[in-house]
Fold:
Amino acid sequence: MAARTGQSPGALSDAVRGRHLPPLEVALAYAEACGGDRTEWERRWRAAQAGSATAPAPKRRWPLVAVAGTTALALAVAGVILAKRLVHESPPADSTGHSARFFADDDVFNQRHPHPRPVPDSARMVTDLLALGRVELRTGKASPVVYRAAPGTPTYAVTPRKHVGQWGANPFEGIGFPWDATWEAPLERQWTVVIAPDGRALECWLAKVRDGKPSCEWGAVSDIHGSSVSAKGQGTGSGLSRLAGMITRADWRAGHIDHALSFGSPDNNSQYVYPAVGSDGRRQGPWREGQFIWLDRAYDIEADTSLTPYERVIAKALQEYGAFDVKNSAQFGFVSEYGSKPPGSKEDYASLEHIKFAKYLRVGTITPSS
Structure:
C-alpha cells in the first residue's frame, strides 16, 4: 500500500488505528488506492473534522475518535479488499476516464501534438531505435520510486555526494529535503523522487540514508505544478524532470494515459531539440534528445487482437500524445512509477514487442507553438 500511494507505511498504519483523524492527504491517498472517490472521501473527512471542532470541550475527544475510527475502519476494510485485488485482478478503472498527471495543463507533456514535423530519415531512425530487437516497459520494482511528503515530514539539508561543479551548483541548496524515517532508500533503483507539500519534486540520484538522514549523489528540483523542465540541477540529460512522461499508478488504474510518454535512446548525439534544453549524448547517430515519436493513426489498435491490455494502453498513448526522447538508455523503453502494476503484466520488465512499432512508428519534432 505504501508503494502504491507514495505515503509512508507509518502514516498508513497510523490512519487505520482510529486514534485520531488522519491527515487529509493520507486519507485521500488511501481512499484513491482502494478505488474510492476522492471527492466523497474529502467530504467525509471534512465532516469528521467539523464534528470534532464543534463538539463541547468536555466531550471533544470522543466524537473525534468515533468519527476517525469509523473512517479508519472503512479505509482498513477497503485496504483488505485492495490487497485481494492486487493478487487476483488488474488495477481498477478510474470512473472519470482521466488519470492524474504531473505539471501544468499547458506543459508540453500534457498537450496533444496533431501536426509534428516528420524528419526525412524517420524510417532509418526507427530501425536504429529498434536495433536491439526488444522494447521494454519498466514496471514494479524496476522503476523510480516516488514518495509524497506530508506537511509534517521532517526535512534535512542535503548536499550531493558527487558531481557538484561538473553538473552545476547544488540543486538542493536552501531547500529542506523531506524524508520520512519509514521510507526506504532504493537499493537497485537509481532514482528516488520526493514530492514536497509545496509541489517541488526533489529528484535524488542514488539515495542513501545514514543515521536517518538522506543524501543523494546528485539530483534536480522540479515543480509539479509548473514546467517539466527542471528548475535546478539535472534529472535527465535533456534537462527534463524524471517525472516527465512517467506512467503513474493512477494511469494504470484509469486504463488510460492522459499525457505524453518519455523514453531513452541508446544512440543520442550531442544535439537537442525542443522541449529538451540540453543533451548528454555522445554518439554520432541521428537521434537528438527532445526528439518526438508517435504511432501513425493508420495503425488500428482496436483491430489488433494480439495486444495485451497494457500494450493497448501504451499504443493509445503513443497515438494520442506521443513520446519524447529525454535521456540516454541502454534499451529503448518506457518507465512507470515504482509499485505500479500494468494490467496483464507479471514481470518488472514487460515486453512491448507486439506493438507494430517498426511499421507505424514515426519520428519528428515539435515546436513550442504546436
Notes: Residues 57-73, 75-99 have pLDDT under 50 and may be disordered. The longest helix spans residues 61-88. Residues 45 and 113 are 40 Å apart (CA to CA).
